[in-house]
Amino acid sequence: MDTWVIVAIVAVVLIALIVAVAVVAARKRPARRRAEAEEIRQRAFEESSAIEQQRAEAAEKHAGAVRMRAEAEQRAAEAARLEREAREQSAATADARQKVDKQWQRADKLDPRTDRDSVAQGPINAQGPINAQGPIDQPVAHPNDQPGIRPNDQSGMGRTNRNN
What we know:
The chain is mainly alpha-helical. The chain has a domain at 32-102. The chain contains two helices and three strands. It has helices spanning 3-110, 116-121; strands at 124-125, 128-131, 134-135. It has a three-stranded antiparallel beta sheet. A hairpin with a 2-residue loop joins strand 1 (124-125) and strand 2 (128-131). Residues 129-136, 138-143 and 153-164 have low confidence and may be disordered.
């Protein structure tokens, strides 16, 4: 056989082999692509599930924050209400204290010889202070009392003149 025939046969066999490999590769390519696409879809599904869980957690945290903010606003409103009531009560108490102090001053002007200690012991008749057992000979002073200072008056401003 001639060499050119052998070369032609080898060339045909090589061409047939190349065509066969190309055909097999062409048939495997869609299967490979389908497998790769399936892997991508599986990862996307897993990541999608994780993202959905994170979204649900974020929504839950947001709801908790909104709830806590509402509770804080409610507590702040309650605190403001209590502060307002305290200011009103303090103002009313100050007014009442001023009225009582004016009564003490008026009583001191009318009878400067009587101090608050004797008034605290009870009513006074013409013979002096009386209690349920009868007249009291001498008023009993509290050991912490200082002569001439009204109770709750530590400044000395409420001194009465006991010499009158």
